[in-house]
Amino acid sequence: xxxxxxxxxxxxxxxxxxxxxxxxxxxxxxxxxxxxxxxxxxxxxxxxxxxxxxxxxxxxxxxxxxxxxxxxxxxxxxxxxxxxxxxxxxxxxxxxxxxxxxxxxxxxxxxxxxxxxxxxxxxxxxxxxxxxxxxxxxxxxxxxxxxxxxxxxxxxxxxxxxxxxxxxxxxxxxxxxxxxxxxxxxxxxxxxxxxxxxxxxxxxxxxxxxxxxxxxxxxxxxxxxxxxxxxxxxxxxxxxxxxxxxxxxxxxxxxxxxxxxxxxxxxxxxxxxxxxxxxxxxxxxxxxxxxxxxxxxxxxxxxxxxxxxxxxxxxxxxxxxxxxxxxxxxxxxxxxxxxxxxxxxxxxxxxxxxxxxxxxxxxxxxxxxxxxxxxxxxxxxxxxxxxxxxxxxxxxxxxxxxxxxxxxxxxxxxxxxxxxxxxxxxxxxxxxxxxxxxxxxxxxxxxxxxxxxxxxxxxxxxxxxxxxxxxxxxxxxxxxxxxxxxxxxxxxxxxxxxxxxxxx
Amino acid sequence: xxxxxxxxxxxxxxxxxxxxxxxxxxxxxxxxxxxxxxxxxxxxxxxxxxxxxxxxxxxxxxxxxxxxxxxxxxxxxxxxxxxxxxxxxxxxxxxxxxxxxxxxxxxxxxxxxxxxxxxxxxxxxxxxxxxxxxxxxxxxxxxxxxxxxxxxxxxxxxxxxxxxxxxxxxxxxxxxxxxxxxxx
Lengths: 504, 184
Hints:
heterodimer; A: mainly alpha; 26 helices; B: mainly alpha
């Protein structure tokens, strides 16, 4: 393996590949930071441009763009409460409140640092354990997938700790919206009401832009607030010190360690992807944080930024495991990269790594270098993006709306998605005033399309026997975890139980 | 936001009731999809949405029950009748901010309506000009320079570098749009 890695380093340290690497990383960062544009879209758009490149350079470019965009998605989430990519949804929960408290630079620094650590650990796991992990993921079937989603849904108690009923309502609305379109197994229209534009279902990107970007602009206009606080950072990072903030290693050691591994394992599961990784990472981070921090999650605690960012970047790396080892994409973007494989004459499958060692290890090295580059240039990234503070709020609001319009339009090139965005934004603006959180709605929309087919396929394979979900050990463990995750916080927060325990 | 305040409970009561009624309607509609099966073991296309809707119905009923228990149904309905005109204004802050918020929604609606027929370039320049002026930024000339400059930059960035198709308009606007597109 060392030999192949040396070959990988050798391949990447050529002038052409180094330029391509730098271009890919910059492009990924740029597109990830622009609301509405994401890694998948950029990779799709750039595939035709890679025809003239050799297959190694082409796959290297697309992979590095993906990594860069997952990083940068958190930056607009922190600055504008607009997740640059779905993977950054959870980062808005604490990142944006940190910005509002005048701690934007600290939040971006933590996001980039923890992303780099999560991504690096993910790549190291990828390098060391790709084949056995891919084999392990093949043993998981629909019952495990469904149970995993149930765990994800149970996490609503964490996200909506202020009002679990309202959080649950919005999450189930998200799950319902995910059923609109074609039935995932039968392929017939459902809740489309004869409207062809609804056959593809409710698009995620316009919904995210509406629920987060448009509603936030309206909220700030309504309250006279600011999206990017012009208060200088409370936890000011010393100027001219461009060294990475290594102190975060000790501060977030448990989160970095646990979420890097957990995120990678989630990323390995085909279809789960970095968004699911971030969702789980946020909750894991909360669970393993000390009580006084745990109780303040969602109000702007640094741990709430470090946790999802570590996990989503680890998951982004993990998503390459099934892609390289089995030819199965672990996420939307890796599915597009898989298509690029085919276009470049590469045959995905179990023998892919052994047949294309040079390509695979060059990409591994590129991913590793991308993560390390961002770790080293952490402060530089923070400096560059914190300049946004100088832009007047009136222009910022207007530009965010225009970028959101372009982002929503470019998903399918139809204005229908723009109306979806606007309606979602106005409704979200209104319901958020009455304590209905919107993050659970997006979680429902993301997890719904995985949950229903898993449930139905699981039942079909077991001839309708619902016990299949508890007869399989991993599925049973996950369902037990879901029950505990949902009910333990409810029980512990119950006034009667609290009084009883205090009284005793 | 205090949940004990009747003024805050009323909008929440209305939101919850609307969600409940829609869920009941969608639950009934789901019966049309019971035949969407791929085999005898497949529970069908109605089961999953109906499961979700049942949970929403239970949650909304419990939320309504909680509010009614705390405030009393007659008090909630009385407040709704008295304050019909204020229901959708939420927390009152001041007229200027409310005007800016609603005018932003209005400008966005107008922008989306003209985006396709007029094309991205003119519609975005006009939208940005109105929006930044309504928010009270700079002089008309300064706002025009900002709107035109940033629209051109965005267009070049997305169209030329990212290869994203933006609307060029229809009819005479398309001719102009294609011409400008060619120039860029």
